[in-house]
Amino acid sequence: MAFNRKAKLRDNIEAIRTAFELGKAGRAATPQERERLARYCGFGGLKCILNPAASLTDAVQWAKSDLDLFPQTMELHRLIRENSASENEYKRYIDSLKSSVLTAFYTPSAVTEALADVLHDYNVRPLRLLEPSAGHGAFIGAFARKDAAVDVMAFEKDLLTGKILSCLYPDKKIRTEGFERIEKPFDGYFDAAISNIPFGDMAVFDPAFSASEAPARRMATKAIHNYFFLKGLDAVRDGGIVAFITSQGVLNSPQNEAIRLEMMEKARLVSAIRLPNNLFTDNAGTEVGSDLIVLQKDTRKEGLTEDERLFTRTGTLRGVSTNSYFIEHEEQIVCTSAELDTDPYGKPAMVYRHEGGAEGIADSLRGLLDRNLHARLVMRLYSGGIRDARLKEEQAAKVRAAEPTLRTEDAGLAAASENTPRTEAARASAPTREEKPEIEPPIMTLYDLFGFTAEEVRIAQTGGKPRRRSNRPKMVQPRQPSLFDAPTQTAAATTQEERTAHGSAESAPRPAYPVENGFKADLNRRITDIERQMREEAKLSAEERQRRHEEEMQPRPFDGLLEPHLKEGSFVRVNTAGVRYQVGYLKDVTRYGATFHPLDLGKEQREKIAAYISVRDAYERLYTYEAEYHDEGSAQRKALNARYDEFVARYGNLNAKANVKLLMMDASGRDILAIERAEDGRFVKADIFDHPVAFSLNGITHVDTPEEALSASLNRYGGVNLDYMESLSDSSREELIDALKGRIFYNPLAGGYEIKDRFIAGNVVDKAERIEAWMAENPHGEREKEALAALQEATPRPISFDELDFNLGERWIPTGIYAAYASYLFGTDVRIGFSESMDEYSVKCGVKNAKILDQYCVKGYYRNYDGIALLKHALVNTVPDMSKSIGKDEHGNDIKVRDSEGIQLANAKIDEIRNGFVEWLAEQSPEFQKRLADMYNRKFNCYVRPQYDGSHQTFPDLDLKALERRFGIKDVYQSQKDCIWMLKQNGGGICDHEVGTGKTLIMCVAAHEMKRLGLGHKPMIIGLKANVAEIAECYRTAYPNAKILYASEKDFSPENRVRFFNNIKNNDYDCVIMSHDQFGKIPQSPELQQQILQAELDTVEENLEVLRSQGKEVSKAMLRGLEKRKINLSVKLETIAHAIKSRTDDVVDFKQMGIDHIFVDESHQFKNLMFNTRHDRVAGLGNQDGSQKALNMLYAIRTIQERTGKDLGATFLSGTTISNSLTELYLLFKYLRPKELERQNINSFDAWAAIFAKKTTDFEFSVTNNIVQKERFRYFIKVPELAQFYNEITDYRTAEDVGVDRPQKNEILHNIPPTPQQEEFIEKLMQFAQSGDATILGRDKLSETEEKAKMLIATDYARKMALDMRLIDPDLYEDHSDNKASHCAKMIAEYYHKYDAQKGTQFVFSDLGTFQPGQWNVYSEIKRKLVEDYGIPSSEIRFIQECKNEKARKAVIDAMNEGRVRVIFGSTSMLGTGVNAQKRAVAVHHLDTPWRPSDLAQRDGRAVRKGNEIAKFFAGNNVDVIIYAVEKSLDSYKFNLLHCKQTFISQLKSGAMGARTIDEGAMDEKSGMNFSEYMALLSGNTDLLDKAKLEKRIASLEGERKSFNKGKRDSEFKLESKTGELRNNTAFIDAMTEDWNRFLSVVQTDKEGNRLNIIKVDGVDSADEKVIGKRLQEIAKNATTGGLYTQVGELYGFPIKVVSERILKEGLEFTDNRFVVEGNYKYTYNNGHLAMADPLAAARNFLNAMERIPSIIDQYKAKNEVLEMEIPQLQEIAGKVWKKEDELKQLKSELAALDRKIQLELAPPTPEVAEKENEGQQLKPEAEDVRNRQAQYPENAPPQIRSPADSIVANHVIIGRPGLYAKEETRSKGLKI
């Protein structure tokens, strides 16, 4: 039966209407109503309901195919809205419908009945049935029909479906919530779990699974289908059955193997059946593969059967991932046909169909289930469980047992008692009111609870000393329940409104008496109460007193005020009758209430806790009030001091030994202990006792200068407040304005003055236009004119269209432009939409033509990618990952490999589409181009960075004399003042100052200034562990009276960490200083994480609504992606909410600390921030997952930004903010400028890269002729605007800019010829690079993973080889006098002796072969040579790795500065930062070259630094930097490539870009070098590199030409075919038209105009149609013409003929006679068969045939219209010429010339040439000679290239700085200037 959407939608509407009516009436459904409800089938397949349907005008946004459903959809929305109590409830219902569209595929009743029948036949008749995803209850109905008394618990998350389900099965437990909400007590409770479960990689929140030690259980929470299986197995008892219908992905996916193994370890496989794809066709109109899996729980099983092992594995069937069980057991697949096709997501899949429909499927299913259960069901295991359950029920009838109580917040659920798992018999026998348990739990004291010994209890209670043990017997104390015991049944909770305040005696309820006698009356009342209680208690017997005491000690609802700071485990005081009270703790804390657990304590113990509670509550109320309202809480502070003083007077300090353990038992104990701090060996009150610490009190009352008045105004009001400034200053308003002229401007839009650095900053274009518009409509004066003129003068020069570079897919360009281009490109209407939250384009095309299906189509082995698919890839700059089969394996499955040729062709076509967009833009009208350029300028070229001048700052409190004494700092540099001023004005930014230019002082002074001016209340500085002590020392020296908190290692030990965090929170420090690692241990605010995720969740839904409102058609894939993302975000939110709820002690988080600005020293350490990208094959992007350290930093900065409501909030300080690639800029902006990125429509890395980067795809041909695809963001465009965006928040200074007194860097490239062993190994490396045979290198064969990284391995070996052969094998290779270690040792010795008198020091860097005790390493080898060969004392040579702690490290640095250590070795990470040992440095040695320019700069900065006295006075103010490079290695190449990169980065930072595009090169540490360059470098012949590049390009072009010609031939064949078809069709039309006209000319009609059937049949004289018809029927029965057309009559002159044809039917031969009427063609009606039952109809057959001619003509005309449209397109395609033919010819010509050159070079030289060459060779490796050669070059020239890498580097360099030049010989080698 076909899926009838209209009927299904009507059924659903009526079912929903019925459910609403029953809900209002509060009654059960009648049989007719039950029938209506049962027809509900969900909204799977009814996507139309997602379209807007609020009013009739919404119909214009609907697709034509859905319009017939519009009225019903409107009716549905109206019905739901009318029955919703609020708009919020209506939205919840609609959200449920949206989810239902994707997931509601209900199981046909025939299948559910089949499963229930077979299980029933095998005596699987569950008493307790679980349905975890019930839908409309198909499985419930099937099992309830077998046993109406079955105890069912069903879960259904969809609100409307849950409502219908409750109406259908009112006697069952229906829970409208997710299955994950099932409670722990239901584990092992059910006999069976049966369901059709949801499927998808939607996450599920279940804390028990997330915290599990089993990896499979943790993994299961990430995919809902996996979770349902494991959770379902948890819920059934041993022997119980789990039978789930699920998607094929559960069994097919290789990622689920761990899940399947977990299933098999705790259950037996009973059955696994693959169901056909058309199972859900009738109910949901969709085809999807599914499986039925039946398991029997057996936790005691041992091992797996062979079938169970197959069940856990994934194999391949016809190239498709398939569960191995189905590969081996094809009989378990229910189908009548199977074919290789695609799944709903377009991926290859096996598609199974069953022609018998649902009934046929059910029949096949019965047979398979019957066989499987017969073979595998262990009935003894199942029945044993049933008997155990019945035995328990009989016992429960006699003895009442505690039953699990459900708590739920869903008002729509049944009462908690109804959800308690028990049988009907047990429920009937259960008491109706709460009864006292027969066995009382033992009572225990608070000290027992935490494991105190009796002696510790005595000390804690009395504060006394330990005493001797006594032999006297002690009274046994009753035991109090543990904090973690299961809750006892409690009385009904009171409502929040009825609760009264709790706490100290003052808050106890008192009678209201008149004021004049209130105190006396209250006193009398209290005395009376006490006397009455004493009299009553005196009358009680001992037993009654004991009983009353036990009743009072029972847990009960907490009836006090549940204040926000109370949480699980908090101490509380509860007042009882009269003056008595109890203390206890809270448990089961929710927003609705909590359970109070009394503690049985002695009087003194109880009073101490009560006093502590008063202190705690007073503190929490004070802090919360001041943090929330930023208002001083005088009354609360007075109360806190009073309560604290009372406690200390009676019991001593909170931190006294006798108090600590007791207080730590409270959930807030750690926090409260921190309100005391230690000073001089005693505890004193924290600052919060004296003044607010949660906000700043502005105490400025007078300033001396207008500038200070301006700063104070900015501090207090965030702007220029002249009234306030006038009140602080001695100057008048007019005098202030005059004094600040040029510094402040009047902004009419804001109605007041603004500071220049804010007014003429940011987007000045928009600001100027808005002011100009304001002035046109409002009267104005000179101040407005001055402001406008200043803005217009500062406006950046507009960039014209011709100057701009564009990428297809830039998110700021409207999708309408892309749609117009696509429509032009393909010659048909194309619509394009964009989802911002998914960063995804959707492309729709109504009619696909030849251009889409042929010209821009790539045909793969498994799938074709047409033009629309390639356009989607082009928009997001990706390439499809195609695969092909190269044969079959032993199992007959496809051997799949990547289709490199297909990928290359797809890439070529995508490039054509992307490049075509730029060409199309260039062809548009000037007006269009101007509008687009204006749009770009408004978005990107609109920023102004003010020239910050901080010279007016005086820095009160700064102790320059102390700085000079300690650090030699005489004054603050102008550059430092400017940077500090920028940071004060902007509230943060980037301090990008070169190494050694004084960033530490900037941090300290800026932090203190922010605090002093109130711009920041509690700043924090974080730095490297190696630097942080020096930062703290600098701050202390600069501000001796400052109150700073410096975190030592001891402070961050686990036992002290929480106290330290509380110190930050409770004290008003000028600055907090800690290391990066320590900062990473600060917990971030879960509330903020929750808020960020919630905002993202809201955005997902908003973007979907925006797309719908704009009338864009939302694809199902996009919808599914949004819904999945929404569910996963919801789960993350739930996880964080759980963390907030279960947080007890513990810790103060970053938000609570009150930090409002972070200074991040060496901020590049945090660049590893998580980001999402679809460019997962692009090299050089870094780790997308990021680090937790970086994520913590993001959360911290977002906390501050949230508080201020603007960008920044932090200051990043680093000399290497961009360490390797410009892609790092995005992460900087993500940290600091989220709002501005959002304004530019950049919400992801891909969106940023689409605007500023160009991706290159390099198809590398290896020697084995394999194509390797390498992608990289190599080119950057629009670089000036990128630099502008960076510079707006950055203060960039080089050492030259700052004028730092430091030595010059003199770089020396020291070339070393390879040793014989290195020469031999180079040959091996080349062989390895060609063949991939690792045994050549003396190592094992490469693994599959290593194969993919072959070039990286080769690169790594080449690096080790260049440094020392012993790094490859210390036993195989020996020392050599000409290796790098020997050269380095010689150079070090020369410098050592040259500067011996001055005790000159040297740094030696290497990241390879670092010091490792007990094994050979390069460091130790060079040290050995220095000691043994050059006589340098061993004590003067040190390795930084020897320093195991900060103290040892500092000692070595001091020894370097004093000259006691002369040579120090280290790696970039350990020696490259945080080492100020430059005082005597004369040389830096680079044994290897690092990967990043920043690493090289950090290394050099250790010696090229201020404070280097020896270099300044004894070495000509130079530090020699020696780079050791072995010829034929990668050393020189890497060094020169780093210099090029550094040039680009420096130009971008300084804004000195001479070009709009730069090229970064193509080598990185993740993938190594490419094959061609590697081979050329090792061979030493750069001509070979050029040859390899030419061959690669030629091969690539020839592959392109081959694909082009193939496509062209296909198009020519199609053109020929379609042209012939058009010609034939035209001939058919002409001939048929002739027949029709002839017929019309002779046909006769009656009076009404009906055509007469004047037919003549041979042998019939009558004109009676009935007689003629009978004769024709006889001919049809008896004629035998032998296949020839034989005339039997005529109609209006047209012959009527019959033909006899032999046909086979069911194995027998029959004669089939067909009739035609003949003209130019033979015409038939009913395919030539006569109506054998009606003679009249038989006679009219031929007239009917003739009357069909016009409709046939119309069909051919319609075909011709399509052909006439397609043929010109095919002619255009077939006529195209390959555009790159000339380029290919030129390249082949160049290759031939290069071949000749190489052959000549390889030929042995003549003796004359050899002699000349020998005469010209002079090698001078000495340092002085090399330095002299280097000194010939101009200051800005790039370093001379002295290796075979010359031309390689030249190919990567496009330097754009104006005025940069090089020598002629450099330029002649190809260096582009």
Brief descriptors of the model:
1873 residues, alpha/beta, 7-stranded mixed beta sheet, 7-stranded parallel beta sheet, 73 helices
State the end-to-end distance: 74 Å
Number of strands: 49
Q: In angstroms, what is the radius of gyration?
A: 43 Å
- The rough form would be described as globular
Structural class: alpha/beta
Number of helices: 73
**Contiguous runs where pLDDT drops below 50 for at least 5 residues:** 399-518, 1106-1114, 1260-1267, 1562-1581, 1804-1873
Mean pLDDT: 76
Strand residue content? 5-15%
Q: For the largest sheet, list the strands in their spatial order.
A: 3-2-1-4-5-7-6
Helix content: 40-55%
Sketch the major β-sheet.
7 strands, mixed
Question: How would you portray this structure in words?
Answer:
The structure is a single chain. The chain is α/β, with parallel strands linked by helices and 1873 residues long. Helix content is 47%, strand content 14%. The chain is built from 73 helices and 49 strands. A 7-stranded mixed sheet has the order 3-2-1-4-5-7-6, with helices on both faces. Helix 1 (5-25) packs parallel to helix 3, helix 12 (257-266) runs antiparallel to helix 14 and helix 27 crosses helix 28. The protein is globular. The two termini are 74 Å apart. 39% of the residues are buried.
